[in-house]
């Protein structure tokens, strides 16, 4: 895939996807900086690059997924590495504050952001970074209609305080222009998350994963012993059903690069898994929840077909091992008292995953699509869920449907946002 | 009686511990056990449903012509009325909590006198668990039947046999329960059964169904997960918690992610983006209520979404929901309805069934009763013996609950003849018999309930007086009065208990209650006397009519018909007059009638039609009252039709209701008239005048449930005119009924409230002549 760039975009190159639970940030680190460039490079920019590339953790909760780094990438004629960073959405305010402290806004740059947070935190960006905004993301009703709005604000006034989200009383527009101490030059572009997701996915798949394929599937999903991860060639991806599992789930039918529709969605997603796990087990993080789930046994919690019928329910061709009622055993007090946290975590994981599989399968049938691509951060380090999905797709469709997965599962929206940045010309 | 076998802890087996506090009135619950057979039982997670088939001995009033052989005695009455015993078949269904199962089985064992039954059909998840107990207690062999097969069989049965079985649930409406007209073709449909898990079954034909999918996230998930999250053990309590909670404290909404709506996709800010999404990020405690609510939404939405996906894939638009998750719980019906509406964008309606809890038991019963061919008969819900929707819902009717413990009953009578649609209905799938929906119209409901309450004393007295030779008539009349009074009170609180509440259902319920206490025909003697009097006047009326010219005669005939209709013992205003003025007769009635123009008056159009058009091929007349109405009102009219070359089918009720003329009475009356009148006589002989029965015992008329013989005849004779007479048949019902042929609806409004509502006064006249639009 080639990017058509009218004019080279000045650094730094970021793409950001602000989701319900996680913020995903991709950063392109140029490796071909000439001595001349190095000299011209402002101090701020240099310090940002150093900060991001020399650390793998930022603050308490920010993490760079080093293993996902795409090396020696050529983007818009520049060579470099693409870094993948994530932090919880609840740290968004701190991120914004940090940005203002690092004087990010003085870089005369544009930040492309997608995900709900691009809308939700828009005000905060403006408040803290004195952003000059171009509302480009709202394709439908706003595109082209709005001229950039110059917003002037007193940075110094705001730097100290942590602005409350959505504090309506302090609308920057109300500041008289004459009071400006500092004119900011950072533009926030809000981008549609589904557009970004698809563009990002297609791009990453096209460049590959450092020589390895980006896309894979599981061979022999029915057999836990034989089940193996295998590369899959996604050169002809259409049509595909794209299931994005973040906090919630969106299901898209993609027919070409820019022809897709959102088929449905469900609120039972990664957020539900983690939320229920926290309530049921007292765990605090996704990693913790998954660790517990890995040790648990969901059949202590779920009622299986054989628990009700003594074996298979032949009338309906249901295997005895199929789950008849998720958490069904928990109707009994005795079982509630004897079940472990690990079992509960496992049952939660299996329940949510199977349900997503079910909905995806029905959508695939309704849309007449036989490839289902699962992405989103719910699948991060979540081999159990991936195998459950692979098995569910295969078993219930009698081998007709294939579940596909991608290495950069949760970052495609952010990559898509970065690509949008590079498509724009500086004078836009 | 005190709970039988209510032993202390020592003796009873562990899994069915007994609630000793309950005092069962089982003779009111397990009724007609003496001849019971074909037992079936459906044991669910918490409720047991027992079904049996029994025969009910009823007193019926029979009419018989006096023996004419030999002497020609001048009788005061035109015929004899005798009371006879008749045996009818009835289906009994009883629902009770599993804790009472042993008590109930004991009771049945003791009262099951005369049965050849060897086997009991059993279904439901608990059938296995209680197998030994049942076999030991009843001495019957337990024969297990597949749960889903029973469910579908039961579902088909209620969809076919019970009017207003199906309803949609509407949250923000006066009438939360919106009952549906029975569609002539019930297939195909989707049944979504939400038990501990969810089964989605596509039903294409009586015996053809397919499990097309399911989900493990169901009632068991709500209960199990809910119990873990809230430490609340009972399902009902969880639902109560949920109804008090705020899910937005626990769920991550679209606006929590976007700050507002997701506009490009048109997703509202209030939509749930991630169920329980907030409980992962926030470091705080959540209330039980909020978590329960969030869980309820999560599960309902998920089921609704899957149901819509399956409906779409299989191209189905009727989805019935059942299972314990739904059963009698407005909360879950509401959330499921919302979800279906959201995911189908309003294209699919979530539908529920009044007797959903009984489907398995009905199906198991049908399996066991195959040799009796229950499916070949038509069945009618017995309002007297059925508890009604939500009778055991603790929120809705604490009164009823204490009255009958937690027992819920449902009875169906086997109708002697199969019922079908009138072939002349313009659109059977949209036909609604009733004119006013009293569930909708609170003012009308209040009026009619009061009206029936006020009339009850008189009805009970009349019932007692109709059986002067019976020693317990007064006692039975009192019981009747109490029973019907209770029904009326139930309906005041739950107008939806038996489907759409209508004047017809109130009347029918009263008839069912009268029958229950062996008052099959309280008006038989009055009818007998009035028929006698009217017959004596017949010739005089005919002579005076014959003296008129054609035009005058037509008006006189119509006025006669209307005047005859004044004689209605069902109308309080009239019965008061009839009780006090013994001399009140045909002429007096005519003088009561409103002068033309009538309240609804298309008489001129009718006259023009008679004058200018060809005679009708065949007229179908639904008669109303005995006595003057049928003899001096209807028969002269019939005679005129016959004389002008129109064949006549005269349809009268199969069973008694108020002073309405019954089919058997009509046979005798016609015979008597034929003896006096050559026109009637030859028409009878040449089969140009045909007497048929409607299949109904109601003072109202449901054109979608008529005797099959009538329907066949209507088709054979190419009926092109339908005449419906009387307030019950032409105003309370069928006022708006659209027919494929010409029709005449006439009645005298004998109720000032109703007259006022229609813009007139008491004794206003409705004369509605309608021609279907081409």
TrEMBL record, chain A:
Claim: ATP-binding is one of the keywords in the record: yes
Keyword rRNA-binding: no
Gene3D superfamilies attached to this UniProt entry: 3.30.420.40, 3.30.420.510
InterPro entries for this protein: ATPase_NBD, Type_II_PanK
Catalytic reactions on record: (R)-pantothenate + ATP = (R)-4'-phosphopantothenate + ADP + H(+)
Superkingdom classification of source: Eukaryota
GO cellular component, one term: cytosol
Enzyme Commission designation: 2.7.1.33
Annotated pathway: Cofactor biosynthesis; coenzyme A biosynthesis; CoA from (R)-pantothenate: step 1/5
Chief place where the protein resides: cytoplasm
Cellular location(s): Cytoplasm
Pfam families noted in UniProt: Fumble
Subunit structure: Homodimer.
Protein name as catalogued: pantothenate kinase
Automatic annotation (TrEMBL), chain B:
Keywords: Acetylation, ATP-binding, Coenzyme A biosynthesis, Cytoplasm, Hydrolase, Kinase, Manganese, Metal-binding, Nickel, Nitration, Nucleotide-binding, Phosphoprotein, Transferase
Biased composition (Gly residues): 1-13
Domain of life, per lineage: Eukaryota
CDD domains with a match to the protein in the record: ASKHA_NBD_PanK-II_Pank4
GO BP annotations, alphabetical order: coenzyme A biosynthetic process
Major subcellular site: cytoplasm
A family per Pfam: Fumble
One MF annotation (Gene Ontology) recorded for this entry: pantothenate kinase activity
Compartment annotation: Cytoplasm
Damage-control phosphatase ARMT1-like metal-binding domain segment(s): 451-760
Keyword Coiled coil in record: no
Entry keyword annotation includes Transmembrane helix: no
GO annotations of cellular component type: cytosol; nucleus
Catalyzed reaction equations: (R)-4'-phosphopantetheine + H2O = (R)-pantetheine + phosphate; (R)-4'-phosphopantetheine sulfonate + H2O = (R)-pantetheine sulfonate + phosphate; (R)-4'-phospho-S-sulfopantetheine + H2O = (R)-S-sulfopantetheine + phosphate
Cofactor: Mn(2+); Ni(2+)
Region Disordered, annotated ranges: 1-20
Subunit structure: Homodimer. Interacts with PKM.
Functional summary from the UniProt entry: Phosphatase which shows a preference for 4'-phosphopantetheine and its oxidatively damaged forms (sulfonate or S-sulfonate), providing strong indirect evidence that the phosphatase activity pre-empts damage in the coenzyme A (CoA) pathway. Hydrolyzing excess 4'-phosphopantetheine could constitute a directed overflow mechanism to prevent its oxidation to the S-sulfonate, sulfonate, or other forms. Hydrolyzing 4'-phosphopantetheine sulfonate or S-sulfonate would forestall their conversion to inactive forms of CoA and acyl carrier protein.
Family, per entry: In the N-terminal section; belongs to the type II pantothenate kinase family. Belongs to the type II pantothenate kinase family.
Protein name: 4'-phosphopantetheine phosphatase
UniProt organism field: Alligator sinensis (Chinese alligator)
Lineage, uppermost ranks: Eukaryota, Metazoa, Chordata, Craniata, Vertebrata
Gene: PANK4
């Amino acid at each position: 895939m080639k990017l058509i760039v009218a004019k080279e975009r000045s650094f730094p190159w970021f793409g950001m996807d602000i989701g319900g639970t996680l913020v995903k940030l991709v950063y392109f680190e140029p490796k071909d900086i000439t001595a001349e460039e190095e000299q011209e490079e402002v101090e701020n920019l240099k310090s940002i690059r150093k900060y991001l590339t020399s650390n793998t953790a930022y603050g308490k909760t920010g993490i760079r997924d080093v293993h996902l780094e795409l090396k020696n990438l050529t983007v818009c004629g520049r060579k470099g590495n693409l870094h993948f960073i994530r932090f919880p959405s609840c740290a968004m305010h701190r991120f914004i504050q940090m940005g203002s402290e690092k004087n990010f806004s003085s870089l005369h740059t544009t930040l492309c952001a997608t995900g709900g947070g691009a809308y939700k935190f828009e005000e905060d960006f403006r408040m803290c970074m004195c952003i000059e905004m171009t509302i480009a993301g709202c394709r439908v009703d706003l595109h082209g209609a709005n001229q950039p709005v110059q917003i002037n604000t007193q940075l110094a006034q705001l730097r100290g305080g942590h602005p409350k989200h959505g504090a309506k009383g302090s609308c920057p527009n109300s500041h008289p222009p004459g009071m400006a101490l500092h004119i900011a030059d950072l533009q926030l572009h809000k981008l549609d998350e589904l557009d970004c997701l698809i563009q990002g996915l297609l791009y990453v798949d096209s460049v590959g994963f450092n020589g390895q394929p980006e896309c894979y599937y599981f061979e022999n999903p029915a057999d836990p012993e034989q089940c193996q991860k295998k590369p899959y060639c996604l050169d002809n991806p259409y049509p595909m059903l794209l299931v994005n599992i973040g906090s919630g789930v969106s299901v898209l039918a993609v027919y070409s690069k820019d022809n897709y529709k959102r088929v449905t969605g469900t609120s039972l997603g990664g957020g539900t898994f983690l939320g229920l796990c926290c309530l049921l087990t007292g765990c605090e993080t996704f990693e913790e929840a998954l660790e517990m789930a890995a040790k648990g046994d969901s059949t202590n919690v779920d009622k299986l077909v054989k628990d009700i019928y003594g074996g298979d329910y032949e009338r309906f061709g249901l295997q005895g091992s199929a789950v008849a009622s998720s958490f069904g055993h928990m109707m009994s007090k005795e079982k509630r008292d004897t079940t472990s946290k690990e079992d509960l975590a496992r049952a939660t994981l299996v329940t949510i995953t199977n349900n997503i599989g079910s909905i995806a399968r029905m959508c695939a049938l309704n849309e007449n699509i036989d490839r289902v691509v699962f992405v989103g951060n719910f699948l991060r380090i979540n081999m159990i869920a991936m195998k459950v999905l692979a098995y569910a797709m295969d078993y219930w469709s009698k081998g007709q449907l294939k579940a596909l997965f991608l290495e950069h599962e949760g970052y495609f929206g952010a990559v898509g946002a970065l690509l949008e940045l590079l498509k724009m010309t500086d004078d836009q | 009686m005190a709970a039988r076998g209510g032993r202390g802890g020592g003796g009873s087996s562990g899994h069915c511990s007994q609630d000793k506090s309950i005092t069962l009135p089982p003779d009111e619950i397990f009724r007609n056990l003496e001849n019971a057979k074909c037992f079936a039982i459906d044991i669910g997670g918490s409720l047991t449903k027992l079904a049996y088939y029994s025969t009910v001995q009823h007193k019926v009033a029979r009419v018989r012509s006096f023996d004419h052989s030999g002497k020609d005695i001048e009788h005061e009455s035109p015929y004899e009325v005798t009371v006879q015993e008749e045996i009818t078949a009835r289906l009994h269904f009883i629902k009770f909590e599993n804790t009472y199962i042993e008590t109930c089985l004991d009771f049945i064992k003791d009262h099951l006198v005369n049965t050849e039954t060897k086997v009991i059909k059993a279904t439901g998840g608990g059938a296995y668990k209680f197998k030994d107990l049942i076999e030991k207690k009843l001495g019957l062999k337990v024969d297990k039947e597949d749960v889903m097969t029973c469910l579908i069989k039961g579902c088909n049965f209620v969809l076919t046999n019970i009017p207003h079985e199906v309803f949609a649930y509407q949250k923000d409406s006066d009438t939360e329960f919106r009952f549906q007209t029975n569609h002539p073709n019930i297939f195909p449909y989707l049944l979504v059964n939400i038990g501990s898990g969810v089964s989605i079954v596509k039903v294409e034909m009586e015996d053809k169904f397919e499990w097309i999918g399911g989900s493990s996230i169901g009632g068991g998930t709500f209960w199990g997960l809910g119990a873990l999250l809230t430490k609340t053990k009972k399902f009902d309590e969880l639902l109560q918690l949920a109804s008090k909670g705020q899910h937005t404290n626990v769920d991550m909404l679209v606006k929590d992610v976007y700050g507002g709506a997701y506009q490009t996709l048109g997703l509202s800010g209030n939509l749930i983006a991630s169920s329980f999404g907030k409980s992962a990020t926030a470091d705080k405690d959540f209330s039980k209520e909020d978590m329960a609510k969030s869980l309820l939404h999560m599960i309902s939405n998920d089921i609704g979404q899957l149901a819509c996906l399956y409906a779409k894939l299989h191209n189905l638009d009727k989805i019935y929901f059942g299972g314990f998750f739904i059963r009698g719980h407005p909360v879950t019906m509401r959330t499921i309805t919302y979800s279906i509406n959201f995911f189908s964008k309003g294209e699919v309606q979530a539908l529920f069934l009044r007797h959903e809890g009984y489907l398995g038991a009905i199906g198991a019963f049908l399996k066991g009763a195959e040799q009796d061919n229950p499916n070949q008969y038509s069945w009618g819900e017995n309002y007297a013996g059925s508890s009604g929707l939500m009778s055991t819902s603790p929120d809705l009717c604490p009164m009823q609950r204490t009255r009958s413990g937690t027992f819920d009953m449902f009875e169906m009578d086997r109708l002697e003849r199969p019922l079908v649609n009138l072939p002349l209905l313009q659109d059977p799938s949209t036909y609604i018999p009733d004119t006013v929906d009293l569930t909708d119209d609170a003012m009308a409901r209040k009026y009619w309930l009061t009206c029936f309450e006020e009339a009850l004393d008189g009805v009970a007295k009349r019932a007692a007086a109709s059986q002067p030779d019976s020693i317990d008539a007064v006692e039975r009349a009192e019981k009747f009065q109490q029973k019907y009074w209770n029904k009326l009170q139930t309906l005041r609180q739950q107008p939806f208990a038996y489907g759409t509440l209508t004047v017809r259902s109130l009347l029918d319920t009263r008839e069912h209650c009268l029958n229950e206490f062996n008052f099959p025909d309280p008006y038989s003697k009055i009818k007998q006397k009035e028929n006698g009097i009217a017959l004596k006047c017949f010739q005089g009326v005919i002579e005076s009519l014959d003296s008129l010219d054609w035009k005058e005669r037509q008006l006189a005939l119509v006025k006669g018909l209307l005047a005859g209709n004044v004689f209605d013992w069902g109308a309080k205003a009239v019965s008061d007059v009839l009780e006090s003025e013994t001399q009140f007769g045909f002429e007096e009635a005519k003088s009561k009638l409103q002068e033309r123009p009538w309240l609804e008056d298309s008489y001129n159009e009718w006259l023009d039609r008679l004058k200018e058009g060809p005679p009708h091929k065949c007229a179908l007349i639904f008669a109303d009252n005995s006595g003057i109405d049928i003899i001096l009102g209807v028969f002269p009219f019939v005679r005129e039709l016959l004389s002008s070359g129109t064949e006549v089918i005269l349809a009268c009720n199969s069973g008694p209701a108020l002073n309405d003329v019954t089919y058997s009475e009509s046979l005798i009356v016609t015979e008597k008239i034929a003896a006096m009148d050559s026109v009637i006589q030859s028409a009878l002989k040449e089969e140009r005048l045909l007497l048929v029965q409607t299949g109904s015992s109601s003072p109202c008329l449901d054109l979608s449930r008529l005797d099959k013989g009538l329907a066949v005849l209507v088709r054979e004779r190419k009926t092109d005119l339908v005449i419906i007479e009387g307030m019950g048949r032409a105003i309370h019902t069928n006022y708006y009924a659209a027919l494929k042929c010409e029709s005449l609806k006439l009645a005298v409004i004998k109720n000032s409230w109703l007259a006022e509502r229609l813009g007139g006064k008491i004794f206003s006249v409705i004369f509605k002549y309608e021609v279907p639009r081409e």
